[in-house]
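Could you help me review a protein record that somebody else here produced? What it holds is a sequence and that sequence's fold in token form. I need someone to confirm that the token line plausibly describes how this chain folds. Take the sequence as given and treat only the tokens as open to question. This is what I was given:
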Amino acid sequence: MTLEVAVETMRKAERRLLKREYSVESSAVLQIAQASGCSAYDAEYVALARELGTRLMTSDRELLQKFPDIAVSLEDSGH
């Protein structure tokens, strides 16, 4: 992929996501990370799913194991 194609692809993605971004409380993320041993990066997704009252679709085995109440396997979801 050329730089020009990559930049245009990123612009298109950013336009599609405009006003569809969410913020989560840093304290919730850090508490989840500390309690689970997961990275703060992964904990952000868990915190967001909890805040939105939805499931977290993932293929990350660690998240599936540590958060069975939130995490759903992509393979099991039919997607």
User: Anything to note?
Assistant: Strands lie at 56-58, 71-73. The mean pLDDT is 93.
